[in-house]
């Protein structure tokens, strides 16, 4: 059963002052994933190689990196997807500042999370009295599958090479959070204006890069961002709403 | 240590999983200032791995359920060694804790009439587990994370500072608790990112650090599970109980080798999946132990009928408590009826339609497809036991979560007592909520009642700093932390694993002594900034101390019960039922002190709770003397 071979791995090492790609020759065994190989490099060749990881089962979203330039979870990327002769290159997420080696500063995401107004249930509804139909919760449930690996945040071209947009744009993960709350059957806030004005929904031009990299296969663009854009558009371009806004300054 | 980063809080919670976050919420709602310190990024804690659900007798799926029946199931699952008061509080309060999560924004799966759906699980009489597909833990941790954000938003509206009352210190490891006399005065640690030291001054510390599974080779646990809270508590003068009881979850992946141990949810069996050996036989019918005789279906027809309608048949033995199923799988494999990769088969493909599998068990589908190239809607899974949970933990007061050291509290997996000798699936998430809240409340009350603040001495800080930096010193005969960790995992797995003997446990203790000696020679390369070799060197100390507790308690308990199976004492012994093996530490090595195990009696269960059980069932567990006062006897 064992088909061991020596893989050529190239791993970015360095810190916020700079760095470069280091080459490693590492043993690979049946069924192993990229994270196993990174761990083997740590255990045998570079004990201080910095990497974030946790569950090693695709559930926590910690071990995000770029594998041959593609944003991936290292624990869910099998070595068998590469040719044994190929050099596999591992680099840190590009959209976030480097801390060390494969570890980046993802605090941007936590700051955006904190800006989104929280779930606001009806005031008179007591615990235990919540009633919701399965088909009504399913829409938001899809978005709550998110493991916050931030691969979508990393790949989205609005911020990937445009640091200047980070202020005005929350990124796919957090626009999806706004959509999730907007679609929650018992949420009482109107989140359409904030999606557009505060979190930069308008920056998204639905290229679906976020959906492509999502390890949970959430249809971020089709199911969260586009419906949210449609709701915003209904509001903005509905002549009656427009007139009402003019007359009553809502 | 003039340049040391210092923070002052009312309560410091160590660990940001379910129990920790619930404690944070409670302490903050009591008006206190709280710091939460965790080794990983916020929201990544091991709770995300919980799959099947959260047990609470809400009676949405079967109106016959009640807290008393949940209590009874919990005691039975733990073979009556549980702290009955914890089991009682847990069963009574779990429904409120789950409903509360809905007010924070949780979206559980629903029943037809719009209430929270509940599923079957091992050892639970009725469908009782609130769930979201097979990612319930993620829902619970995210919900509480978002509740904390919501509290921070309230604080921002009031004070202009999001962090006025709750601050998250993530990627920060606590290496030592600091005391003033016999009381807690704070917690000392380092930032993983920079390696710089940090001190939290606080009169109360809540430990919510989870389990110890990383001391075992085959484990469903993440790297964080190194027994930090257990070890911090021991070194601070608190005690551990039930450390001999380790839960090996019956269904971990067995192939490919790199994913060996990753969990396969019990929800697969709850939703109709069955275990089969290499001969295609549903073998669990042969493994119903005498204490459960009469409570489980004895034919395949009856078991399948029960899945359709709980009230017209007895439950399937595929859903016996986890310890029973794990031992049964172990026996089948030993008898040569295992799969090619040393497990047994778990079949859901032939039991429910493809679309149902994808809907009810999406992450299992995904996990097998991507990691093992197995399509579980077409083929059987190969599964085997994996180290999953430690029943043992810090000995606490059931109502307040207070440990023996004043100012120290604990909740969740790192506390002990609630689950006795074996935890039922689904009782962990509810445990986190019930006792996380109680520990947060207990800590808040303790702080409010304190006349003055404890102080931290400079000498204690100097010692903590020196010990943390020891791996950077040059050592003769330098050791690699990764090598030592691998040796520890192998020893615990092989010698103090699912089936134990005196000889093997003694061998393990010899190995632990050897590792303890070599630990001081661990030498790490590089500098203090995000250095995983150094991080492991520090975690190793905790794993060694806790492993010694496991081995010593396992050696002392000369019977088999729940998550402790002695090949040389295969029977359960009623004389052992009420005995707790209490571990304390002191003397010897300052970093990994010597462990002492002392047997102590538990407080007997009051008559009204005994009334939850038939006398004939109690007679299977209790001594005659203990039952003399039972109403049916006197």
Question: Would you kindly provide a written description of the structure presented here, covering whatever features stand out?
Answer:
Helix content of chain A is 36%, strand content 16%. Chain A is an alpha+beta fold. In chain A, the strands form two sheets. A five-stranded mixed beta sheet of chain A has the order 2-1-5-3-4. Chain A has a two-stranded antiparallel sheet with strand order 6-7. In chain A, helix 6 packs across helix 9. Chain A starts with a strand and ends with a helix. The model of chain A has no long low-confidence stretch (mean pLDDT 94). With 634 residues, chain B is of the alpha/beta class. Chain B contains 18 helices and 21 strands. In chain B, a hairpin with a 4-residue loop joins strand 20 and strand 21. The longest helix of chain B is centred in the C-terminal third of the chain and has 25 residues. Chain B is globular, with a radius of gyration of 24 Å. Chains A and B meet through helix 1, helix 2 and helix 3 of A and helix 3, helix 4, helix 10, helix 13 and helix 15 of B.
The proportion of strand residues of chain B reads 15-25%
Mean pLDDT of chain B: 95
Instruction: Find the structural class of chain A using helix and strand composition.
Output: alpha+beta
Mean pLDDT of chain A: 94
Tally the helices of chain B: 18
- Unreliable residue stretches of chain B: none
Question: Which strand order do you get reading across the main beta sheet of chain A?
Answer: 2-1-5-3-4
């Amino acid at each position: 059963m064992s088909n061991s071979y020596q893989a050529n791995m190239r791993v970015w090492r360095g810190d916020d002052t700079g760095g470069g790609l280091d080459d490693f020759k590492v043993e690979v065994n049946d069924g192993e994933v990229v994270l196993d190989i990174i761990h083997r490099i740590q255990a045998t060749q570079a004990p201080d190689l910095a990497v974030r990881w946790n569950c090693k089962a695709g559930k926590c979203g910690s071990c995000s990196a770029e594998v041959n330039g593609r944003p991936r979870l290292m624990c869910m990327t099998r070595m068998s997807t590469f040719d044994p002769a190929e050099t596999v290159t591992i680099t840190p997420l590009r959209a976030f500042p480097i801390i060390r080696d494969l570890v980046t500063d993802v605090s941007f995401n936590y700051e955006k999370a904190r800006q989104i107004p929280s779930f606001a249930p009806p005031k008179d509804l007591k615990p235990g009295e919540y009633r919701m139909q399965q088909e009504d919760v399913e829409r938001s449930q899809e978005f709550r599958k998110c493991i916050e690996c931030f691969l979508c945040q990393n790949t989205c071209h609005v911020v990937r090479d445009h640091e200047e947009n980070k202020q005005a744009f929350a990124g796919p993960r957090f626009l999806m959070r706004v959509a999730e709350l907007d679609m929650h059957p018992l949420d009482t806030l109107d989140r359409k204006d904030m999606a557009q004005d505060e979190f930069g929904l308008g920056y998204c031009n639905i290229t679906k890069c976020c959906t492509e990299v999502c390890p949970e296969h959430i249809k971020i663009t089709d199911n969260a961002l586009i419906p949210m854009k449609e709701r915003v558009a209904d509001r903005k371009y509905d002549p009656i709403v427009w007139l009402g806004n003019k007359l009553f300054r809502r | 240590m003039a340049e040391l980063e210092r923070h002052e809080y009312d309560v410091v919670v160590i660990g940001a999983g379910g129990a920790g976050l619930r404690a944070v919420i409670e302490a903050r709602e009591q008006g206190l200032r709280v710091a939460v310190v965790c080794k990983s990024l916020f929201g990544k804690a091991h709770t995300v791995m919980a799959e099947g659900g959260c047990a609470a007798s809400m009676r949405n799926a079967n109106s016959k359920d009640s807290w008393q029946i949940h209590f009874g199931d919990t005691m039975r699952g733990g073979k009556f060694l549980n702290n009955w008061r914890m089991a009682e509080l847990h069963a009574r309060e779990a429904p409120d804790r789950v409903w509360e999560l809905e007010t924070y924004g949780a979206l559980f799966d629903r029943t037809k009439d719009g209430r929270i759906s509940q599923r079957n699980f091992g050892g639970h009489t009725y469908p009782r587990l609130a769930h979201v597909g097979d990612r319930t833990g993620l829902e619970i941790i995210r919900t509480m994370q978002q509740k904390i954000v919501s509290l921070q938003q309230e604080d921002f509206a009031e004070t202009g500072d999001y962090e006025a009352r709750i601050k998250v210190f993530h990627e920060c490891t606590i290496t030592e608790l600091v005391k003033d006399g016999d009381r807690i005065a704070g917690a000392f640690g380092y930032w993983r990112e920079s390696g710089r030291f940090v001190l939290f001054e606080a009169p109360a510390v809540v430990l919510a650090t989870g389990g110890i599974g990383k001391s075992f080779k085959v484990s469903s646990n993440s790297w964080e599970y190194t027994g930090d809270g257990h070890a911090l508590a021991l070194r601070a003068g608190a005690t551990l109980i039930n450390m001999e009881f380790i839960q090996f979850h019956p269904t971990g992946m067995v192939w490919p080798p790199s994913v060996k141990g990753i969990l396969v949810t019990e929800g697969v069996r709850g939703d109709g999946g069955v275990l089969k050996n290499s001969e295609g036989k549903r073998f669990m019918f042969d493994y119903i132990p005498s204490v459960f005789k009469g409570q489980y279906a004895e034919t395949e027809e009856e078991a399948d009928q029960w899945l359709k309608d709980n009230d017209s048949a007895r439950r399937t033995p595929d859903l016996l408590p986890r310890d029973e199923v794990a031992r049964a799988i172990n026996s089948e494999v030993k008898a040569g009826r295992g799969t090619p990769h040393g497990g047994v088969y778990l079949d859901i493909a032939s039991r429910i339609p493809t679309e149902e599998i994808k809907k009810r068990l999406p992450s299992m589908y995904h996990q097998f497809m991507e990691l093992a190239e197995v399509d579980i809607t077409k083929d059987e899974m190969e599964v085997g036991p994996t180290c999953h949970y430690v029943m043992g933990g810090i000995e606490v007061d059931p109502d307040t979560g207070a440990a023996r050291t004043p100012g120290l509290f604990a909740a969740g997996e790192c506390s002990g007592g609630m689950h006795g000798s074996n935890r039922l699936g689904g009782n962990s998430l509810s445990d986190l909520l019930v006792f996380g809240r109680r520990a947060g409340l207990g800590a808040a009350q303790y702080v409010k009642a304190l006349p003055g603040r404890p102080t931290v001495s400079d000498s204690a800080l100097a010692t903590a700093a020196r010990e943390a930096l020891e791996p950077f010193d040059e050592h003769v005969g330098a050791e690699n932390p990764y090598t030592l960790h691998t040796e520890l995992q192998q020893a615990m797995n092989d010698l103090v694993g699912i089936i134990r003997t005196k000889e093997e446990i003694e061998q393990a203790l010899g190995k632990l002594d050897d590792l303890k000696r070599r630990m001081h020679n661990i030498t790490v390369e590089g500098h203090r900034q995000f250095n995983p070799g150094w991080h492991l060197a520090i975690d190793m100390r905790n794993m060694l101390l806790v492993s010694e507790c496991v081995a010593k308690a396992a050696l002392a308990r000369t019977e088999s019960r729940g998550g402790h199976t002695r090949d040389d004492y295969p029977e359960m012994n009623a004389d052992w039922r009420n005995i707790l093996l209490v571990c304390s530490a002191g003397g010897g090595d300052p970093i990994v002190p010597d462990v002492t195990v002392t047997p102590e009696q538990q407080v007997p269960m009051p008559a009204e709770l005994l009334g939850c059980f038939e006398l004939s069932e109690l007679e299977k567990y209790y001594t005659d003397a203990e039952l003399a006062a039972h109403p049916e006897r006197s």
